[in-house]
User: Fold this.
Amino acid sequence: MAGEAQAAVKTAQAYYDSDDADSFYAIIWGGEDIHVGLYEHPDEPIAQASRRTVAHMAARLAGLKPGARVLDLGAGYGGAARYLAREHGAHMTCLNLSEVENARNRTLTAKQGLGGRIDVHHGAFEDLAYPDASFDIVWSQDAFLHSADRARVLAGAARVLRPGGEFIFTDPMQADTIADPAALKPVYERIHLPNLGSFAFYREQLDALGLEDSGSEAMTGQLRTHYARVRAELTARRAELKGEVSDAYVARMLDGLTHWVTAADRGLLAWGVIHYRKPG
Assistant:
């Protein structure tokens, strides 16, 4: 892995391993899912909307059957893995770089009696150690934005996917056409990287890898709704976080959420479900 990619991994790992981040995501998101939700109305609970995203993605997968081998890249607290194991009988492999999140994943998984169906591994999705064609489905939610080598991540996912398998993911992205990339500087600074992916980037890369589009869908409005909803929830519950999350972290998070909402309002961002199939 190149130096820039290694630095990005270390930055993301340090962030998600921090007590502030762990407490924020556990309290505000409910400790199950850490990703963009699908909202039926703007005031819907974050955890409910986030779980709807998982169910929506799962419903798209023809290969999601009992015993399916699923790799979750950037699995966070493992909420999606537990849903897929419990509701669909999948055997899950969670790969995640934060050991703090992995520990919470293992604890929640054991409490829900799903330990036999879910393996939790520590590692970066730029360097997959799994054999070729070892998974029926590769899954990820809002994680690839943290990578400085997204092309490498996609190539690795394609390699470990069996012929006929499916690759499905979401990611906060930049719009395909941006007149002035500097307009997204506040967002880039949040992720400590010079850019985001885009629908066009992912389409180009996945096409080049020989994967076939299974009907990707753009739902950019949900990104704006989600970040605005998190900002509102954080503002309303700020006093509750005293002693759990530092004031400096909360202030930075509120600023960052505002940057995401502003960028979405300006048409600079994109989000949706990207779903491809490996021929075979």
Observations:
- Residues 52 and 197 are 23 Å apart (CA to CA).
- The mean pLDDT is 95.
- The beta strands are 69-73, 91-96, 118-122, 135-141, 161-170, 173-174, 212-213, 217-218, 269-270, 272-277.
- DSSP finds ten helices and ten strands in the chain.
